[in-house]
Specification:
Structural class: mainly alpha
Distance between the termini: 89 Å
Mean pLDDT: 88
Order of helices and strands: HHHEHHEEHHHHHHHHHHHHHHHHH
Length: 408
């Protein structure tokens, strides 16, 4: 049925007799179907938004007791339309009649012809689901009560599978707009038998869709919370990297720092941001600069050339921070040895100390730096001498003592 509806919408779209918008999800497909049925209504008949509202109210009334499409007494539907839409009884009769005789989405049952049901069950389930999503929105307690009711239905979840699927589709398409709690999709997915991996992926997608619009929010705290939540997702947030990079030049240093930290938490998935992280090493704020260097280290070995280039910085704390981060790669940073040998003779003693420590962390791969470390063992600064001695031991093992002794 869904394929048939979509094909009809596609044909109408191609022929130019329908709206230019082509639905890309099931709830919108159902609403577009109603639009097509109501296409030639006259000015005295309900317009499309009114038809949508009436159809959703009617659908929910047909499902709310069993969560399956069922016939409902005409008088019950009329009363519900009056209450939900704020209309009088005469208008309710006209609008219900429009759904039944003009659009033919409703049909009459019973000997007295006093019961009404939907002609298509999937349409009823989807419209009822839309009604529920709009009604419950972000109210967690309402969703919790719904799950309890759903589990209590006879034969659940198999007996109400269609409605649960429709409700999940509506949550996916309206989740951001209605701020649906993240656990709702997971709960529905479990009941319709989706795999754990698919549920996890869908939950992440919903979270990303909710957070990305907040990056353009003008309120500092709102943006910071959104960026931190994206950081919690780590590599799973890789798809929003371009959106984060756009915020890396924000006027507030807190935003710049938090964005850079979040990129680092993506690990290797943040590698495309290496150029902008290198650029941020020239930031006016020291906290932002240090975060940029640290994030390069979290991205992985692919960022080692960028860290090596930072050893040539004119700013001492950038050189020392870059050397410190390189130490985390241990033997993987042996390509940095030539640059570390150079800063081992730096004008800043703290840079010298960190360079010696990092060369020791690299281990045997830093043997070419042994002559430089020997010189440092007799240098001006005590902490540098001690670290250079330790580095020689880590590079040469027991032979380090003889090397140090011979150099005196």
């Amino acid at each position: 049925m869904l394929a048939k509806l979509y094909a009809e919408q596609l044909i109408a779209h191609k022929s130019g007799i329908a709206d230019t918008y082509l639905p890309d999800n099931i709830p919108d497909l159902m609403l577009s179907y109603l639009n097509e049925l109501n296409r030639d209504h006259n000015p005295n008949q309900p317009d499309n938004p009114t038809v949508h509202q009436d159809a959703k109210v009617t659908a929910w009334e047909c499902l709310k007791y069993t969560f399956r499409p069922s016939p409902v007494k005409r008088e019950t539907l009329l009363t519900e339309l009056e209450l939900a839409c704020g209309i009088d009884s005469a208008t309710a009769k006209i609008r219900l009649g429009h759904l039944q005789t003009r659009l033919r989405i409703l049909q009459t049952f019973g000997p007295a012809q006093d019961q009404i049901s939907f002609s298509l069950d999937p349409l009823a389930e989807c419209l009822a689901a839309l009604y529920l999503v709009e009604l419950y929105s972000n109210e967690t307690y309402l969703w919790n009560n719904f799950m309890i009711q759903a589990d209590a239905m006879p034969g659940a979840p198999e007996s109400i599978h269609g409605f649960l699927l429709a409700l999940r589709d509506c949550c996916l398409s309206r989740g951001v707009e209605r701020d649906i709690p993240e656990n709702v999709l997971n709960e529905l997915g479990q009941r319709v038998g989706l795999s754990t991996e698919m549920l996890r992926r869908n939950q992440i997608d919903q979270r990303l869709a909710r957070l990305v619009p907040k990056l353009s929010n003008g309120v500092l705290e709102t943006k910071l919370r959104a960026i931190r939540e994206l950081g919690d997702l780590g590599a799973a947030a890789q798809s929003v990297l371009p959106a984060l990079v756009r915020e890396i030049h924000a006027p507030e240093w807190q935003i710049r720092q938090e964005v850079i930290k979040t990129i680092g938490l993506m690990g290797a998935e943040g590698r495309n941001a290496i150029p902008v992280l290198v650029d941020r090493m020239r930031d006016d704020d020291r906290r932002v600069v240090c975060e940029a260097v640290a994030s390069l280290g979290k991205i992985g070995t692919i960022a080692i050339p960028a860290l090596v280039s930072a050893l040539d910085s004119k700013t001492a704390y950038i050189r020392s921070t870059a050397a410190w981060i390189l130490a985390n790669f241990e033997e993987g940073a042996n390509s940095a040895v030539p640059a570390l040998r150079k800063v081992l003779q730096d004008e800043d003693w703290q840079v010298q100390w960190v360079a010696a420590y990092t060369l020791g962390s690299i281990g045997t791969g830093a043997k070419e730096a042994v002559p430089d470390l020997i010189i440092s063992c007799s240098g001006e600064y005590g902490l540098v001498r001690q670290e250079a001695s330790r580095a020689l031991w880590r590079i040469n093992g027991e032979a380090a003592s003889k090397i140090v002794e011979a150099s005196r």
